[in-house]
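Quick one: structure for this chain?
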Amino acid sequence: MPFPEQRPRRLRRTPALRELARETRLAPADLVDALFVVEGSGVREPIAAMPGISRLSVDQLGDEAKRIADLGLGGVILFGIPARKDALGSGAYDADGVVPRAIRAMKKSTPELLVIADVCLCEYTDHGHCGVWDGHAVHNDETLPLLARAAVTAAEAGADVVAPSDMMDGRVRAIRSALDAAQLEDTVILSYAAKYASAFYGPFREAAESAPQSGDRRGYQMDPANAREALAEIETDLAEGADLVMVKPALPCLDIVRAARERISAPLFAYQVSGEYSMLQAAIERGWLESPRAIDESLLAIRRAGADRIISYFAKDFARRHRG
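Got it. Here's what it folds into:
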């Protein structure tokens, strides 16, 4: 109907009417928190590039697990920073490494909490690359057994979900085969299926001490110019045995989130990465953006695009404000 009969503003007039007409809803259970775990005791070390986020030692994680569960969040993903690194990232598949111990501590404290273990070598290698590095390139097929070992190690420690983030070809199949061979066939795989070589990862690399010592990751992470390739990667990983898939980063890739949502039925994650977090925090601290509205709007945009779950460093902040 033409104006004046059609008046969309009628449904915007009051908070109750806006709530009635709201199309997209976001709850704490839709968000996954991300934690950086370090060696030591009593460590709660602020990360300069990520205001409000700290590295935590394993002994802090029992209480942290309870806080996350009490907030009603949808889980946690763990990133480990070992005391020592080597060329093959052996800390990633050490059964007594920092992440397996973190998983056990969180599951002992809060068994019902969904725990996701990131599976990659970059935090554990002395060269900072996500696989076996010869000084010039990462060797794809030589990396696969190491990733599979890391996934099995995390699953044996009690991780509900393992999340390969390396972008090696064939790693989902290798991990699924290794988990099944270890009688861990119930372990879920969340693949970072469409992970771009993004400029928005900088603060994470400081937090996880994982910046490459030479070269860069454009030889294995995706070109930000490509969309069809992202959909092909997602379909390939699902065919190889992934149960869940992820798009990373989130806000710069809302078109990919939407396209994936329209094409696949599997649960879809999006990762609001460190650079997205830090730039919002910097603008909020300077008074250029209004908090919490800017935070909530950024998360709603990702959800509206089609993400079922969002990994975000804002997860606890959002949950504290939106608990039922």
